[in-house]
Design goal:
By secondary structure, this protein is α/β, with parallel strands linked by helices. It is about 25% helix and about 30% strand. The chain contains 13 helices and 21 strands. The strands form 4 sheets. Strands 2-3-4-5-6-7-8-9 form an 8-stranded parallel beta barrel, surrounded by 6 helices. It has a 6-stranded antiparallel sheet with strand order 13-1-21-20-15-18. Strands 12-14-19-16-17 form a 5-stranded antiparallel sheet. The two termini are about 15 Å apart.
Length: about 450
């Protein structure tokens, strides 16, 4: 500690619940095993309560589900929202069928908040999906163009791709629509068939570059890939897909977990003894926990009093720490980020901001393993723990903070450091450093 102080820095650790940016959405659905969900509702209750809605495609609406089935799902999902996938191939789906599907979902009680057109694009069909019987509290239902990333031969910005349409058409459709939605068989993903991985990453990046929404599907379909079919570890491959998108700066706005054309991977249960199961609801369970966090597993604490180290300490038990700081003296502190989970990793977001006073009087530098991350810390999304910095189970990472007063301070200020399990998710832990004139 330092003597002869002109300023007092009080450090308070507390819990807050303010979002950093738009929260990622998660939609879940089944095709072949859809009845398994209806007959075993208690085996996927976490997904029902926390998913952003029910994902349903045109084949289900036309051939697999009755009005009673739709009403059953409406009663199960807490959000009561739906994402409807249609198809632009005339042999698959037509405008009147879109209207019938929209009416059926409305009759069951759902609000349709996203739609997509697979296999091409049609302005006429877009008008139906966007505006027909628009009872939702929005001016238009967002309608995305859907593509198979393996059709791009790698980067979507390169031409022409392998079809069925040239990459230039996919780019054009993303621009004129409300965004991108992908098909996502994990059999193709597991072997990077036709450079599917780069195709998916670049598609998300392209959508974001033109300020459009991006949705990515995780599907257990094996697509005839023998190495994947022999093991069928959908959960492991799906998690690698999530990590891959995050680590390649292609984290989508929406994750879709949806099964079609394949009844090998079961729909339930979502978890076994608290661990996600190798099922479709298990995949959704992981993505939701990865986004929202598992209680008392993600901890932010200060080095000075070791608060929280290896033990999650509730707000009421966190003491203040007072440090005397002379003007012009560099004061160093360290915050630690710990993951106490046995299985759950985080692409966590940590951000900082000064409130209640002048920002110009303070120079604050944040470093992680000797690398300056100050710019990211001060951004709306914060610094995201990706690649080698991913917050993994049973690990602790440290950020060094260097604080210097650069001019005479006349106003009090508060430095807030907030930790969330994912960009846009609710803050689960925070540190407040009170900068006050002594």
């Amino acid at each position: 500690m330092f003597a002869c102080s002109n300023f007092v820095i009080t450090i308070l650790l507390c819990i807050t619940v303010s979002p950093a940016a738009t929260k990622q959405k998660v939609f879940y659905g089944e095709a072949e095993l859809v009845q398994q969900l209806l007959t075993n509702p208690t085996q996927w209750s976490y997904v029902q309560q926390n998913a952003d809605g029910f994902y349903v495609n045109f084949i289900q609406m036309d051939h697999m589900m009755t009005p009673a089935d739709l009403k059953g799902f409406y009663n199960l999902y807490q959000s009561r929202a739906a994402y409807f996938e249609s198809d632009c191939e005339a042999d698959h789906q037509t405008g009147p069928q879109d209207k019938a599907a929209i009416d059926a979902l409305h009759t069951a009680g759902f609000k349709i908040i996203y739609t997509s057109l697979n296999y091409g694009w049609s302005a006429e069909r877009d008008q139906i999906l966007g505006y027909y019987n628009l009872t939702e509290p929005i001016s238009r239902r967002p309608d995305f163009t859907q593509l198979g990333p393996w059709c791009l031969s790698g980067n979507i910005n390169n031409d022409p791709g392998t079809g069925p349409f040239p990459n230039s058409k996919y780019r054009e459709w993303i621009v004129q629509s409300d965004g991108l939605s992908t098909d996502g068989p994990m059999g193709y993903w597991s072997i990077n068939f036709e450079q599917m991985q780069e195709g998916s990453y670049s598609s998300v990046q392209f959508a974001h570059s033109v300020n459009k929404t991006a949705a990515v599907m995780l599907c257990p379909y094996g697509a005839g890939i023998s190495t994947y079919n022999s093991v069928r570890d959908f959960l492991t491959v799906g998690i690698s897909c999530v990590h891959g998108h995050e680590d390649n700066d292609a984290d989508p706005d929406i994750w879709i977990i949806f099964e079609y054309a394949d009844a090998t991977i079961q729909a339930v249960p979502e978890q076994i003894n608290g661990y996600p199961a190798n099922t479709t609801t298990g995949m959704a369970y992981y993505v939701l926990k990865h986004r929202d966090g598992e209680p008392e597993t993600l901890d932010l604490y200060m080095h000075e009093n070791m608060t929280g180290k290896h033990v999650y300490v509730p707000q009421a038990l966190r003491p203040d720490l007072v440090v005397n700081v002379p003007v012009g003296v560099v004061v160093n502190h360290t915050v630690h980020i710990a993951d106490y989970s046995d299985w759950l990793d985080y692409a966590a977001s940590i951000r900082a901001n000064i409130t209640g006073g002048s920002k110009s009087g303070w120079n604050i530098i944040y470093t992680l393993n000797g690398v300056d991350i100050s710019h990211a810390m001060n951004s709306p999304n914060g610094f995201i723990f990706l690649r080698e910095h991913r917050v993994r189970p049973g690990t602790v990472q440290s950020i060094d903070i260097s604080i210097t007063s650069t001019s005479a301070i006349t106003e009090n200020a508060i430095l807030n450091i907030q930790l969330a399990p994912h960009r846009g998710s609710a803050v689960v832990d925070s540190v407040q450093i009170f900068l006050t004139k002594a």
